[in-house]
Each structure stands twice: as structure tokens, then as C-alpha cells.
Amino acid sequence: MSLSVHQSKLGEDPNLASLVGQILSVADGNRDGRVSLPEARSTWALLQMDEVLLGLLLQDRGHTPRLLGYCGDLYMTERVPYGPLYGLSLPWPLVSWVPGGLQRAMDQWFTPSWPRKAKISMGLLELVEDIFHGPYGSFLICDLAAAHFGYTDRHELRLTNTRVMVPEDEFRRSMQVLRCETDADCVYGVDCHTSCDSTARRCRVEPVRPNLAKACGALKDYLLRGAPSALREELEQQLYSCMALRGNAGQMNMEHSLILNNLKALLWRQISHTKDSRR
To answer: pLDDT 10s per residue in the chain (279 long)?
Structure first.
């Protein structure tokens, strides 16, 4: 039953059986080697929440806060001491009075040193890499805002709101039945867009911008502010190339991997000799 439920949410994938094994391990709360009926009921209630299931998928890679305990649909995860990733929460009366350019600049005022920002940014790039044709299929992040991320005392990135993730199979099924007049009608969540087929008046299923392009857009100001002068020009070029990625372009998989690897290598060269590189 557990396997069929996960297949309905994540699609057909040969690795789902190993996910079920991981869930059974979590369900065995008293570590006696078997799952009792109360444990099974409690775990079943927990897994009805998609954000918990997605958090478990990414937990082993360190992308989400560790699940510490649960009872039914109540659960506790490790504390993420720093969040959001960047930005200031202005009182609502001030928001409309502060120009957008000034607010973007203010967002970068209280951030860590640049090598630490580079390490945090690599965590986001690795998250994007792991959910792009990962072991349990592909996922889209449909609200890639700084508010949904935080980081630990060791400057390791954590996705603190897994509700913004959606399996790509589910995204495609949803878009396939969506009627449209213009491209503006073809949106899932906050920023997962497709284009409108004006002849069929149906949304196409191919996302316009991949996760990587949106991640680089979120990191652009964050990484360029305070970047070493010898690095800044090359970093800026790579970030803009990354932001220009399109999901429906030919050879997208190869281009995606090339840009991702180049950007990670550039950041790693700058911090590999510092204490901030330690995991």
C-alpha cells in the first residue's frame, strides 16, 4: 500500500522500493526490528503530508532539516538557526514606501562573509543537481525565494519549506489539463511557468525555466556583493549564462550539467583552501 501511494505522488521509479525501506526504518520508532500497528498508523498519518515525504527524500543528502520525532501528523525537525537565506522583513506599512532597488540592496546588508556565502550557494546548487533526474525522479521548485531556505552554524544550506517542491510528473499532469488564452495562464505555484498552445488552448507541459536558472537568479546579488575582484567578472558571466537557461531548449541536459559544474568549480576554487570549505 505504501508503495502504491508513493507511486501516485512521485510517479513510476525503480528506486521507490528503497524509499519504502527508508520509511519502514523511520516507522520502527522503538528500534525493535518490526513495525507495530500503532507505529504504522502514526507513520501513515505523517506521510499524508507531502512536505514530510519530500523532506525524507532529501534528508540523506543534508538538504532538509533532519526529522527528529513525530506522533501522527505532528512532527519535529532539527532547528535551522539562520533564515531566511537573505533579506529583511520590513513592517508592512514600509514595504510600499521602499523602492524595489533599495529593498534589493537592503536584502544583502546582513549576510555572512563572501567565502561563507559561496559555501551556502554551493549547497543550493547541489540541491538543484540532486533533484534534476535524481534517484526518485525529477522535481521542480515552484517558489525559489530566499524565505524558503536557511543555513546552519556550519553554513550548510537547508530547504526549510518543502511545500514549494513538486514532482515533475505531477507538474506535467496538472499543466496538461489546464486551459489557457495566454502564457500568463500557464503557471503552477509561484514561478513554474509553461507556454500556452494557442491552437489547442492548452498549456504545454515543458517548464520554461529550469530550477538552475531560477537558483542562479536568486543567488546573483547574493554572490556578486563582496565577491573577490579577480573573480567577479567571470562569476557574473557564469551567473547570467545560467539565468538564460531555458527548459525547452535543445541539448538542455548537457548545457545544464556544463553550467552547473563550471559554477560549482569556480566557487570551490575560491574556498577550497579556507576553513569555510570544511563539511
So the answer is: 444 544 555 555 556 667 777 777 777 777 777 888 888 888 888 888 888 888 888 888 899 999 888 888 888 999 999 989 987 666 666 667 777 677 777 777 888 999 999 999 999 999 999 998 777 788 999 999 999 999 999 999 999 999 999 999 999 999 999 999 999 999 999 999 999 999 999 999 999 999 999 999 999 999 999 999 999 999 999 999 999 998 765 556 788 889 999 999 999 998 887 765 555
pTM assigned to the model: 0.86
Are 140 and 212 part of one and the same domain? yes
Q: Could you tell me if 54 and 102 lie in one domain?
A: no
Q: Is residue 26 part of a domain?
A: yes
120 & 163 share domain: yes
Q: Coil, strand or helix: which one is 28? A: coil
Rounded Cα distance, 184 and 182, in Å: 5
Q: Residues 221, 155: one domain? A: yes
Output the CA–CA distances (angstroms, integers) from residue 4 to 12, 136, 172, in the order listed. Answer: 9, 14, 19
